[in-house]
Write a structure and sequence with these properties.
7-stranded antiparallel β-sheet, 32% strand, globular, disordered C terminus, transmembrane, membrane, signal, PSI, PLXDC
């Protein structure tokens, strides 16, 4: 089961760049100019259809406030970012410069390449074609993951508008998505629980801007997870809606990949207790402020030649539990995961049909 909420521009802000824009040229990573020993052509992905392979990163990549050290590259023009590989990779937790039904096995010139230099990890789908529509032409595009969390989608060859790509056999998506898994009571049994995937946020971009020599740049915004102390968690101006859980020593709004743990350790109850204490403290401070103000007014009235300045501080309260809206998702294509050697994580998962 998957659910989705629309982009609130809470996690990322993004900009698009067209042909001739200087920033577009800066974002493009020319793999042909990189030392060839650092660029890896994935032999299996370059010769198969609907396959995915896990690859280790050389740095911790921040994604929606979570640090990733491993991602999954798929032949279908996207990167899966989930920790738990499930059969519907295209449903949630992805970085998708152009998710579609690409088949690199059609031509020897079609490849899936990647490069990691410690500062940026780049995946390039090079001269790939859509299955069943090979005559439409080749697509060349890349996703660049920078170690500061910035993500760039770069497009060199886009032979037809994205709106004209058929999504019947495979989802067509462009953007970012993250989700959390939660164990919910099963309708078949009161004692059993089922694992449910909630896609809590998605960034969808204007696909009409995807043309030859275009680019998108996603800049991460601060999240509750980055705060490491209770004080910063509750009073930082960079974020809102954050709560602190002493048991976990974690700052969160309760809507992230750690949600199950947040609930299991009763962090919402702890947060409400702390919030009540904060309110009590604020009320006490206001009473003291009013008393001091009255004394100051009395002092000024009895001493007209003295007029000390007063500085009032305003405290903004936040809604600690934002509402969540969900909608049902349709069936998504399945992928098989291929086994890799070397430093890549090994494993093979057979995908089943979800419909």
């Amino acid at each position: 089961m998957t659910h989705v909420v629309e982009d609130s521009q809470r996690y990322y802000r993004w900009r698009s760049y067209g042909p001739g824009d200087r920033r577009m040229e800066e974002l493009w990573v020319d793999l042909s100019a990189v030392q060839q020993s650092k660029v890896r052509v994935h032999g299996i992905l370059s010769n198969t259809h609907r396959q995915a392979a896990r690859v280790a990163l050389s740095f911790d990549f921040p994604f929606y406030g979570h640090y990733l050290r491993q991602i999954t590259i798929a032949t279908g023009g996207f990167i899966f970012t989930g920790e738990i590989t499930h059969r519907m990779l295209t449903a949630t937790q992805y970085i998708a410069p152009l998710m579609a039904n690409f088949d690199p096995s059609f031509s020897k010139n079609s490849t899936v390449r990647y490069m990691d230099n410690g500062e940026v990890f780049v995946v390039q789908w090079d001269k790939v074609r859509l299955q069943g529509r090979e005559a439409e032409g080749t697509f060349t595009f890349q996703a660049a993951l920078h170690n500061n969390g910035t993500i760039a989608f770069n497009y060199r060859e886009v032979p037809l508008p994205v709106e004209k790509i058929n999504s019947t056999e495979h989802p067509v998506k462009v953007g970012l998505s993250d989700a959390f898994m939660a164990l919910l009571p099963s309708p078949q049994s009161s004692d059993a629980r089922r694992r449910t995937i909630y896609e809590y946020h998605r960034v969808e971009i204007d696909t009409t801007k995807i043309i030859n020599n275009s680019a998108f740049e996603f800049t991460p915004l601060p999240t509750c997870l980055q705060h490491t102390t209770c004080e910063l968690c509750l009073i930082s101006n960079l974020t809102n809606g954050c709560g602190w859980c002493n048991t976990l020593q974690r700052c969160s709004d309760g809507i992230d990949r750690h949600r199950q743990e947040w609930l299991d350790y009763n962090c919402p109850e702890e947060e409400r207790t702390e919030h009540t204490a904060i309110i009590a403290g604020v009320v006490a401070a206001l009473i003291l402020l009013v008393a001091l103000t009255l004394l100051a007014v009395y002092y000024i009235n009895t001493h007209p030649t003295v007029a000390p300045p007063f500085y009032l501080m305003q405290r903004h309260t936040n809604n600690y539990w934002p509402s969540m809206k969900f909608r049902n998702q349709s069936c998504h294509s399945t992928y098989a995961e291929v086994e890799l050697g070397g430093h890549d994580k090994e494993g093979f998962i057979e995908a089943e049909q979800c419909c």
